[in-house]
Known about the structure:
CATH class of the largest domain: Alpha Beta
Largest sheet: 7 strands, mixed
Strand content: 15-25%
CATH superfamily of the largest domain: Glutaredoxin
Distance between the termini: 53 Å
Mean pLDDT: 78
Structural class: alpha/beta
CATH architecture of the largest domain: 3-Layer(aba) Sandwich
Amino acid sequence: MTKRHTKKDIGFWVLFLSLGFIYGVYLLQRDAKEGFGSLGYGTVPYFSFDDNEGEVITLHKLKGKVWLVNFLSEEDSKKYPQVAAVMKALYDKFGDRENFRLLTVSSNENQIDEASEEDDYQHWYFIKGDKEQLSALMKNAFYIDNRNDSFSSSLKIFLIDQNATIRGYYTISHRNDADRIEKNLIQLL
């Protein structure tokens, strides 16, 4: 009887582990198609920058919150209204939630002042910082290629979860990406 019981146990565990493996592969493939889910694109490292109000914004201040971040560049300044419109629409929809924040980042103080003057945004931080520090953050955390000393954002918005894991990259020139941001944001909030 002991041998038979042992064979049943082994059979059960082989079946259980096989089903678990198959389900895990299914989830990864499903999430890879959507660009969201259990997949992450790395974790944002510690940072500390001043916002346009003089407040210090750090990674620790954003932990436990879902946030969107976009980078302004002097080269792409004509494209920024597209990104700003999406960010503003998302702020209008979700900005009153305590677990949601927006960040707009630039090394150009004038850009930050112009971007932030439109309204009084309580949960939208307009970050200004040293070009070299911001370039390092863009390259090392967000994998933005900033060759030739250009501070290019390529119309990207990044979705970061409560654990500072990058959960999505969205290109605003594609209309369906704006819809995907909102859908994925709802899943995290």
